[in-house]
Specification:
The structure holds two protein chains of two kinds.
Chain A lengths: L1 H22 L10 H11 L12 E6 L14 H10 L4 E3 L5 E3 L2 E5 L5 E6 L13 H12 L17 H5 L9 E3 L4 E5 L20 H4 L4 H6 L10 E7 L3 E6 L14 E6 L5 H6 L5 E4 L3 H8 L4 E7 L2 E7 L9 H9 L3 H8 L5 E3 L24 H10 L3 E2 L5 E3 L2 E2 L1 E7 L4 H16 L2 E7 L1 H7 L12 E7 L29 H12 L3 H18 L2 E14 L2 E2 L17 E2 L1
Chain B lengths: L1 H28 L15 H10 L6 H13 L5 E2 L4 E2 H36 L4 H15 L2 H15 L18 H39 L2 H8 L4 H30 L2 H6 L5 H10 L3 H29 L7
Antiparallel strand pairs in B: 1-2
Helix pairs in contact in B: 1-12, 4-5, 4-7, 4-9, 4-12, 5-7, 6-7, 7-9, 8-9, 9-12, 11-12
Classes of the chains: A alpha+beta, B mainly alpha.
Chain lengths: 572, 321
């Protein structure tokens, strides 16, 4: 008897503990009492005498650094943050998305084919060596090198003479001309003039004397020991632990140097981001956008938030060569029968995403007036009517048929992120009412890519798949989801939808240099895509950054990362 | 004994080759390639194809297999696609933390689990036994992500005596080695508890049941009848016989020392092999997956051998001649 009583007591205590832990997560935490605070700082900063600078270090939290700290090799956003802090670029952009000079002023020739950059005076790398056009040439020739295996080839592949140089036939890259120590030209071939070409010059410039290589392996070996001309210099990195960058004391433009001592970027799992901000163990982090997280973050009084529209969208691709989906009315019916408002509320929380309409970011100058676009608001009757019109009739088994074929749809859902499954789950319910036999296949991201974009044209084995897409500042859609020519193995367009008229608009928009005229062209194009929906834009998402109140002057927005704001920042 | 070990090692070679072959074959069958997650929207199909060719993906898989074996014999496990550096270096980067964490939790679980199991068995059905049983069942059944978050909430957020993430404090400028060790130990307290709890609990249960079986044997009754002290009976006569199944368990633990604990590593943001191998699988980083799994296969085979050898030490009746 006695033991049993002890046991039940024990269990009861356990249950209370569990409940307590479950309920009080994140919200309304009283500030930790002072003595514990003292203990903590004792642990964290042991010998205060040896660490006078510790306070002025910006502590950034996140996860996903891969160790490719090289502006031409980096392939994820966290590694690019590191690169953009250490290296400087010929061209950068302002908060409006306009391109502005960073290391160099530029002029474009009459025919829009030659870009001539003139470097500013006195630029030096962190080791004191002057930055000259030889370094610029070296950087771009490295991307074009026959051995190059990074993801940045598109920055040079449009230049004159790329094929010859990349193929190894010659040592001379015709499209890059060094005029003198300060002046360099990049030449694009006839017919490829486009305002988007300026985006080729937003990559970090590497010092030739440091990175010059005999073997490609020697070049790669420097990925973990970068040297650039930026306001920060590389100090140390421990894989999957932290990256430490310190202020570049020899920065070539002292007036614009860093106003604090350095940045520590720590690997912090998503689960702990809010707690880490709350306990001041980090100063800055992206918070995954959900209503719960936003509420908890807003309740903290030691941080302020940046809540802005991300430059990208999530989309749903229809395989338009399938008999069930070739008719635009069927595609429209399916979207009408999908309650995206509720989806956004369930998945992200109201206000943290918007229903997608056009394949252009709403933050762009090319985005049409929303009133001219169809939001496909949830309407089951309209959906049923469109299905009927398209010849898909409801039979006695509650499914629709046309010419003896059942309306069967196979949707590939990857589980690496949660939103595709949420959306497909909601569709399973409403589409069933519409008479659609939906089959959801769960898999990982790689498998979805393998069966859609990366499959041969005749072997693309799906009806619908969903994915996210990030955009450039320039709205040019060439080569992406809506490009007829990207309907190949490895291309981004898996829908099979072709529209010569739309492609004509894309080509005109790409080559037009008057932004107002360009906007008109893209708006017209966006309306066609909003009507035809070979890819439906599911949602535009908000992104949230949390920043400690001891950090002043930070500004983060759609076209401005915290990195681009770093010179304005000071720490109290 | 020496001949036995040599014979066993020779036997391992075909087994190991078989494991590698199966690994290679399964990877080959998995959909997706290392290139399919390079989703830079501006990359053209031709550029993607060129990357695939540079990674040697256009060579038939059996040829790649033979090449890989040839290179591996020379100690070259290839280049990790994501990290752009040799697989051996990548494993070296992450093995330290994994090994450290696993060793600490293994020591904890042996030091606590086995004695607790012995007590539990000798005092069967008493309050102590029941308490230990309940605790061990909690230990076995509580999911480690939940237990980990619970500990973090109490000790790192509410009362803030332990750090929330990481293996050390990078801003600790002290040059004193002792301070550094102290700092790292401090960071490892919560993760070791989380990782150790489950294995402590299983060691306790295995020891308990194995002891219970031995205690009922005739020779224990004989030992008692000889008038030996209870302590001698339990620790010299019973425990020595009960330890054999636990040795088997320990043998299997050896690869576990390096396979990493994905959940614990993720929650506490520790730089371990578990997280890396999951990442490698999700991005189809073939060379790294192969490297890590080949290493684990070797360790599993060695673990089995070590367990067999330890039997002979624990039980004089077992001889390998």
């Amino acid at each position: 008897m006695k033991t049993r009583r002890i046991l039940s007591l024990l269990l009861a205590v356990m249950m209370v503990v569990t409940l307590f832990a479950g309920c009080t997560s994140q919200t309304n935490q009283p500030a930790p009492p002072a003595p514990e605070d003292g203990e903590e700082s004792e642990q964290e900063e042991q010998p205060p005498a040896e660490q006078p600078k510790g306070d002025k270090i910006l502590k950034f939290g996140g996860s996903g650094w891969g160790g490719l700290f090289n502006p031409v090799m980096t392939d994820n956003v966290y590694d690019s943050y590191v690169c953009d802090l250490i290296f400087e670029h010929l061209v950068n952009n302002d908060i409006e998305g306009e391109f502005i000079p960073e290391l160099a002023e530029w002029i474009v020739s009459e025919d829009h084919l030659t870009y001539t950059f003139t470097l500013k005076d006195g630029i030096k790398f962190a080791d004191g060596t002057p930055l000259t056009t030889a370094d610029v040439e070296f950087t771009y020739k490295t991307i074009a090198h026959p051995k190059y295996d990074g993801p940045r080839a598109y920055a040079v592949s449009d230049l004159v003479g790329y094929e010859e140089y990349h193929g190894g036939a010659t040592d001379v890259f015709e499209g890059i001309k060094v005029i003198d120590e300060k002046t360099i030209s990049f030449i694009f071939p006839e017919g490829s003039a486009a305002p988007a070409n300026i985006q080729c010059f937003v990559y970090g410039i590497m010092p030739k004397h440091y990175y010059e290589f005999e073997n490609w392996e020697d070049f790669l070996a420097l990925n973990e020991d970068p040297l650039g001309s930026g306001v920060l210099v590389f100090d140390s990195w421990a894989p999957k632990e932290f990256i430490k960058l310190m202020k570049n004391e020899n920065y070539w433009d002292p007036a614009n140097a860093l106003k604090f001592d350095g940045i520590l970027m720590s690997e912090v799992p998503d689960e702990s981001i809010l707690s880490a901000l709350q306990t001041n163990q980090i100063d800055l982090a992206q918070i995954s956008s959900s209503a719960d997280n936003l509420e908890a973050a807003e309740a903290m009084d030691n941080i302020h938030l940046f809540n802005y529209l991300g430059n990208g969208y999530t989309f749903m691709c229809f395989n338009c060569i399938r008999p069930q989906l070739e008719d635009v009315r069927v595609r429209q019916a399916l979207i009408y029968a999908l309650d995206r408002e509720s989806f956004i509320e369930a998945q992200y929380g109201a206000g943290l995403a918007e229903v997608g309409m056009a394949p252009i970011s709403p933050s762009s100058w090319a985005f049409p007036d929303a009133s001219e676009l169809n939001p496909y608001s949830f309407d089951m009757e309209k959906a049923a009517k469109l299905m009927d019109e398209a010849g898909w009739k409801m039979e006695s088994d509650k499914f629709r048929y046309k010419d003896g074929q059942k309306m069967h749809i196979k949707w590939l859902v990857y589980t690496d992120a949660s939103w595709p499954a949420t959306l497909a789950g909601m569709a399973a319910d409403t589409w069933k009412q519409l008479g659609v036999d939906l089959e959801i296949e769960l898999m990982d991201f790689e498998t979805v890519a393998d069966r859609t974009m990366d499959a041969e044209v005749g072997e693309k084995d799906f009806d619908i798949y969903t994915m996210g897409f990030s955009l450039d500042i320039d709205p040019d859609p060439t080569g992406a989801l809506f490009d007829d020519n990207a309907y190949v193995k490895g291309g981004f367009n898996a829908s099979g939808y072709k529209n010569a008229e739309a492609m004509e608009l894309v080509a005109r928009g790409k080559a037009e240099f008057d932004q107002e005229k360009r906007a008109v062209i893209y708006k017209e194009w966006a309306k066609i895509m909003n009507q035809e929906i070979p890819h439906t834009i599911v949602a535009y998402r908000k992104e949230i950054f949390g920043c400690s109140n001891r950090v002043k002057g930070m500004e983060i927005d759609t076209n401005k990362t915290f990195v681009q704001s770093i010179r304005e920042v000071s720490i109290e | 004994m020496k001949n036995y070990i040599i014979r066993r090692i020779i036997q391992m070679i075909p087994v190991f080759l078989g494991i590698l072959f199966i690994l290679f074959f399964i990877l080959e069958q998995a959909p997706g390639t290392p290139v399919s997650n390079m989703m830079d929207p501006k990359m053209t199909p031709a550029q993607k194809a060129e990357l695939a060719q540079k990674l040697g993906l256009d060579i038939p898989w059996y040829k790649r297999f033979i090449n890989w074996i040839g290179e591996a014999l020379k100690g070259n496990l290839g280049y990790s696609i994501k990290h752009k550096k040799p697989v051996t270096q990548v494993i070296g980067d992450y093995a330290g933390a994994t090994l450290l964490l696993a060793l600490i939790s293994l020591v904890i679980s042996i030091l606590i689990g086995i004695p607790a199991g012995v007590i539990s068995a000798t005092k069967q059905y008493t309050v102590a036994d029941n308490m230990l049983t309940v605790i061990s069942f909690i230990g076995i059944s509580i999911p480690s992500f939940f237990f980990g978050l619970l500990l973090l909430k109490f000790f790192a957020v509410d009362i803030q005596i332990f750090p929330l993430f990481g293996l050390r404090d990078p801003l600790l400028m002290s040059t004193n080695q002792f301070d550094k060790i102290k700092d790292m130990a401090w960071h490892l307290v919560l993760p070791s508890i989380v990782l150790g709890l489950n294995s402590t609990a299983s060691f306790m249960r295995y020891t308990r049941s194995s002891m219970l079986e031995v205690i009922k044997q005739d020779y224990i009754r004989t030992a008692r009848a000889k008038g030996l002290k209870e302590k001698t009976v339990i620790y010299r006569h019973a425990f020595r016989n009960a330890v054999i199944p636990i040795i088997t368990l320990l043998g299997f633990w050896i690869p576990g020392l390096l396979s990493g604990a994905v959940v614990t590593e993720t929650i506490f943001a520790l730089p371990g092999l578990g997280k890396i191998s999951v990442e490698a699988t999700l991005t189809r980083n073939y060379p790294l997956i192969l490297g890590i799994n080949a290493m684990l296969a070797v360790l599993t085979l060695i673990g089995a051998l070590v367990a067999d050898l330890l039997y002979a030490i624990a039980d004089p009746r077992i001889r390998y001649d």
